[in-house]
Design brief:
337 residues; mainly alpha; Serine Threonine Protein Phosphatase 5, Tetratricopeptide repeat; 3 domains; 15 helices; 83% helix; rod-shaped
């Protein structure tokens, strides 16, 4: 009887072991099949479904102690998240809406988080590098929609994510200018873009930022001179000239301001510089010659003044130049001489 009980006990243990092995094998088969099904979803571009199914496979494999399948899932998920993010950006490119760029940003953030969680540092870094650019793109959409406050806030996010992002500083300056922010603050933002662009070899961005800084200072300086705030106007225009610009209008406006300040030597110097840079025809140069002629006139240099006024006698400056030559300077060849 004792031997019979011992034999029965051994049989039960054997049956339990066989049953456990069979159950484990069935579980591995089911999880493997689920893995393959998730892979098919990913290949078909059904990324959302694939991610959900792979995450379920990971949990089931962890419960079943199938570390090899877990490793396979870890190798797949970050790449599928990345593919989903790329697809989201393609959707944005097709319609350029705020909703789709927001969806793309969220998808890239999810991909970064997944890659970090599963130890794929290269994918995580790639996603992180894309996010500031996506914020920049979003700001352009907002700018086109005249949502300047929103564009500014989004650019702040781009800069916070990448403090060396020259293009974001450039666009921030553009937005600030359209918001009517102080000229000095706008130009400071352009200067930051120039500094970073030069540092990282982004010549095109540096050139655009330089040109826009000059135009900002020129516009503000010209208006300030027109308002007879001459010291401030000259300061702004001198800053514009400091960018080694080839913008003739900067030096013309300086000549104009210096004439108003009765600083005729400076007016002559800047007018001559403007003439060197002006590539237009006689009508474009007329306004510069007029300022040059006036400066010479106030220096009592009649010959030089008459010569300059003769060249100013075109377009809208024709009558004013002719009046000076005939009635004030009494230049040779005029009825007043």
């Amino acid at each position: 009887m004792k031997r019979t009980l011992q034999g029965l006990s051994s049989l039960l243990v054997l049956l339990f072991i066989v049953g456990s092995v069979s159950f484990a094998q069935d579980a591995k088969t089911a999880i493997t099949n689920a893995y393959n099904a998730a892979q098919e979803k990913a290949t078909a571009g059904s990324y959302e479904e694939a991610i959900k199914e792979f995450e379920d496979v990971y949990e089931d494999a962890e419960e079943a102690g199938l570390a090899d399948i877990q490793e396979l899932v870890v190798g797949q998920l970050p790449r599928i998240y990345s593919a989903k993010a790329s697809e989201a950006y393609k959707v944005f490119q097709a319609n350029q809406s705020l909703e789709t760029i927001d969806a793309a940003i969220e998808a890239f953030q999810d991909a970064q988080n997944a890659a970090t969680e599963y130890g794929e540092s290269s994918i995580a870094a790639q996603m992180a590098n894309n996010i500031p650019q996506l914020y920049y793109v979003k700001s352009l959409v907002q700018f086109r929609q005249e949502d300047l406050e929103g564009a500014s806030a989004t650019l702040d996010l781009a800069i916070a994510a990448n403090s060396n992002y020259a293009q974001a500083y450039f666009q921030k300056a553009i937005v600030m200018r359209n918001q009517g922010k102080a000229t000095t603050d706008v130009v400071a933002m352009f200067d930051q873009a120039i500094t970073l662009a030069d540092m990282y070899g982004q010549g095109q961005v540096a050139t655009r930022a330089t040109n826009q800084a000059v135009q900002t200072l020129l516009s503000a300086g010209a208006q300030t001179v027109q308002d007879n705030q001459l010291t401030r106007g000259i300061d702004l225009l001198t800053r514009a000239a400091g960018y080694e610009t080839d913008e003739a209008d900067v030096f013309f406006r300086l000549a104009e301001a210096y004439n108003k300040r009765s600083l005729y030597n400076d007016a002559v110097t800047n007018a001559q510089k403007a003439l060197e840079l002006e590539s237009g025809g006689v009508a474009d140069k007329a306004k510069i010659y007029f300022e040059l002629g006036f400066a010479y006139q106030m220096q009592n240099n009649k010959d030089a003044a008459c010569s300059a006024m003769k060249n100013a006698s075109y377009g809208q400056f024709r009558d004013s130049a002719n009046h000076k030559m005939e009635f004030e300077l009494k230049c040779p060849g005029t009825s007043g001489s």
